[in-house]
């Protein structure tokens, strides 16, 4: 966790990351929260153009296995999606890992519900329920909104069954990345 402590200390003293990292104390949290922090640290490192550090966080996250806890899996899935994005959507093993969670439950009804929810996500259903995470006038970034939105764009691009083209998804992702880069640069 030294990597996380080092990185979070750096982010703690830098805008626009400060708000996200100021409440985290790795000595006082459980496993699920550590996974959450690792995922956010990976995305923030990615947005800060520190892909090497982001990949180190992702290495830790992607080693985690699905154990039936979907709350915990949320953070691992977010890391896996960023890893898929960094590898230009060519890592089919990670994609298969995400899909394999659908058949984890013993109850057939639960598996059907999981598959239906997954299919809705592949069609962009969740994305339609969320608003774009910021406007062009914004001078700050709410990473608690931006990262889930960005992650959902990666998810849709990975499993796309929606009316949204990969080009449209890439454009939205580029807009987010450009805006965050602009905001980060304004604090340097």
UniProtKB/TrEMBL annotation:
The domain of life for this entry's organism is Bacteria
Q: Which InterPro entries match?
A: DUF6707
Pfam families reported for this sequence: DUF6707 (PF20453)
Protein's name according to its UniProt entry:
Uncharacterized protein
Species of provenance: Prevotella intermedia
């Amino acid at each position: 966790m030294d990597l996380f402590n080092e990185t979070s200390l750096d982010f703690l003293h830098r805008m626009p990351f400060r708000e996200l990292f100021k409440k985290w104390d790795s000595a006082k949290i459980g496993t699920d929260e550590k996974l959450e922090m690792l995922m956010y640290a990976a995305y923030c490192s990615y947005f800060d153009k520190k892909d090497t550090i982001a990949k180190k966080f992702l290495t830790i996250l992607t080693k985690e296995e699905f154990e039936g806890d979907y709350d915990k899996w949320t953070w691992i899935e977010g890391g896996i999606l960023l890893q898929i994005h960094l590898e230009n959507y060519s890592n089919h093993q990670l994609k298969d890992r995400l899909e394999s969670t659908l058949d984890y439950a013993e109850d057939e009804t639960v598996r059907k519900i999981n598959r239906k929810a997954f299919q809705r996500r592949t069609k962009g259903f969740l994305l339609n329920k969320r608003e774009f995470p910021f406007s062009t006038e914004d001078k700050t970034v709410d990473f608690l909104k931006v990262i889930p939105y960005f992650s959902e764009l990666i998810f849709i691009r990975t499993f796309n069954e929606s009316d949204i083209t990969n080009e449209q998804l890439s454009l939205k992702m580029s807009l987010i990345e450009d805006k965050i880069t602009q905001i980060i640069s304004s604090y340097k």
